Amino acid sequence: MLSYPYQNFYEVLCSNAKNAPRKTAIFMDDRKISYAKLKDSIDTFAHFLKQSNIQKGDKVAMIVGNCEAFVVALYAITKLGAIAVPLNTFLKEEEFEYILNDCGAKMLLSSYAFAKETKPLLERTKIERIIWIEAPLDENEERFETILATTLRDVEEACEAKLDDTACIVYTSGTTGKPKGAMLSYRNLFSNAISGADSFKVTCNDRFIVFLPMFHSFTLSIMVLLPMFTCSSIVIVRSVFPFANVLKQTLLKRVTIFLGVPTLYNALLKAKIPWYFMWFNKVRIFISGSAPLSEQALNDFGAKFKKAKLLEGYGLSECSPAVCVNRLDHQKPLSVGLPLPSYEIKIVDEERMEVPMGEVGEIMVKGDCVMQGYLNHPDATDETISNGWLLTGDLGKKDKDGFVYIVDRKKDLIISKGINIYPREIEEVIYKYEGVDAVAVIGLKNEQTKDEDVLAFIQPKENVTLIEVELRSYLKKHLANFKLPKHIYFVEELPKNATGKVLKRVLKENVQSGNFLRKK
Fold this sequence. Notes:
Elements: H1 9-19, E1 24-28, E2 31-34, H2 35-51, E3 59-63, H3 68-79, E4 83-86, H4 93-103, E5 107-111, H5 115-118, H6 121-124, E6 129-133, H7 144-150, E7 166-173, E8 179-185, H8 186-200, E9 207-210, H9 217-229, E10 233-236, H10 243-252, E11 257-260, H11 262-270, H12 275-280, E12 285-288, H13 295-304, E13 309-315, E14 322-325, E15 338-339, E16 344-348, E17 361-366, E18 373-374, H14 378-384, E19 385-386, E20 389-398, E21 404-409, E22 414-416, E23 419-421, H15 423-431, E24 436-446, E25 451-460, H16 468-478, E26 487-490, H17 504-513
Parallel strand pairs: 1-10, 3-4, 3-5, 5-6, 9-10, 9-11, 11-12, 12-13, 25-26
Antiparallel strand pairs: 1-2, 7-8, 8-18, 13-14, 14-15, 16-17, 17-20, 19-20, 20-21, 22-23, 24-25
Helix pairs in contact: 1-2, 2-3, 8-9
């Protein structure tokens, strides 16, 4: 059992501001924000939220890029016992609209860079106001920066939130095609922080670089909340592009812990890294998640970056999200490592009976990481969580040492550039296009990029001719860019079994064998 020294995020911050007030909490661009200054900003924004009638249990949504304001908003929202709902900034207006209405968010914080997609939401959702981050001064909007500069700071340091209260709701797409909100408590997220700190031997001297999107559950938990828990520092970079800037910040800010995805590490292996970076960088741990790493990549990376360890892990949003990781003193190629301290994993068959060691089955997880449930979806919660055990939908196996290996995904999940894509969601959008009779979306590994491409197979209605360029124009309006199919195939008829279910396996085999119809 884990021991929890704090009840909520704000208690962590108060402790850091008291014990290490001048320590840098955040590096961003050329600025340094101390823990004392960060606490002042959080207290100020929390006071504004209180004056805006945000109360315990209210949902406040965040469509915010990587910046200091993300951290300030998250901690200020939860200081009041309200619930933060960080959203994927790559989504489009209709996708935001669904989620905001589903969670019943009372207020929205939006980076002004996303104004085109977020401004209409005030009229189309239940939100009462939008607070804009980095909006131009000449815009007649409520600006986050103006609020921090003009609002009185709240001197009240009490926080009503308790360990088992919901802290955040992270939306993850399901097989139904509609996103579901995974409700994560402080206990859930603290268990990840405590177990992660133990596994990575984190100290207050460590510095974490945050260039992957902060809304992502992995980045949020391991690269934002964990370093705050250990009174470490985070280096915020707005984007992975240009990647030369990520390397520059890693070097100049003396980063020690680096989180990436396999496509990034594969790119690093091919890139010509300056000799001075290789000589002077302070990185001791590279963490990889979201998709499998090849054994060759792991070995090549170890040969190139001799001073650091590349550790592969596994997780899912419903588990806050980290579940397994290889250890500094013990790792195995192709394995996602051992369960984090205090978590349990078992491999089960269709009847949920544990299978013998080495056999493949569905991965189940038990521990304080397991979410409270899906918001507004009790039936889906009951299907996913049984007696405290969470069914992941992923197929895997365990060896004699307890190391876990991911074999395949039970669901039709596609992972591209570390982002989860669910075919059903794309299929539902395509189905709405006039002239479409049937559709199937699959993911297919690209041997060149080692990533997964999204492929759509469309059966037009009888006597209908579909134009690809027109269909793509429609899809761009309704889907985030990372969900757009790379290839679209028009077919006379989709292969189906006796019950009418589309045989996606056959589609995949036909494409791989080169026997499929030409792409129009």
